[in-house]
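>> received
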Amino acid sequence: MTAVLYDAPGPATRRRTLVASVLAVVLLAVVTAWVLYRLGQAGVFTEEMWGPLINPANEYFTQVWTRLGMALVATIVAAVLTLVFSLVIGTALAVSRISAARWYRWLVVGFIEVFRGLPVVITIFLAWRMLPAFGIVVDPLWPLVIGLTLYNSVIIAEIVRTGVASLPRGQAEAGFSLGLTRAQVLGSIQLPQAFRVMLPALISQLVVIVKDTSLGFIISYEEFVRTANQIIQFLHNPIPVYFFVALIFIVINYSLGRLAEYVERRLSRAQRTAAPPAAPEAAAAATTAAP
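>> returned
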């Protein structure tokens, strides 16, 4: 017997659904055509607007894409550094919160709650202003990385802690019964599984990190969006430049999402195909029973 969660739609319902879908498509097409028409009237689709971005013969084409390419590299560098530091610090915070004694656990929890509640733009600005106050003069990259790391490390700490908490209690108890310490149980049993369980959430956080690098404009870091704004001020073509900036961000973040799905499938497949070795008693019984 096949179970269904809802009744199959009848002819009238299917007809209404089809009519509504067609009307929605027509309405969307009309709105899109109207928007394109108004943009055309405003001169958005001229060679002067799009030439510096799509025409190699344009005098600004090489300069524009050279600057955008350097800015994209700067954005990726900031995102990668933030991800590495956030993973290390976030994992350490998660382990500390799980294994800390009551008398100092409040310090770890307080740190996590404070920086989880602060807007990320505030953490970036604080890092940018406080480093010179201590006599540390660095490239704007580092205040951006520090600010993003302070925010994202506590988010990753909560993701990892949630992953560990979702595991069956029997696994940790089995480790303790073998004489493993709390740190050994976390490092060899719980954390590897928690990372596998929370991998999609971790890569989704990487997408957030990539987008948050655009906040580097507040400290004059030459990241992708800031450089695009400088190009717009010179060429006066905001729509074409923002179109390509958005397209590049979409491609990067979509690729990260697909990577998360691929890694999750590979890990799930490896977990399913990995067969445990036969116990000695079972092997002996099978050998005895064989003719």
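>> The chain has twelve helices and no strands.
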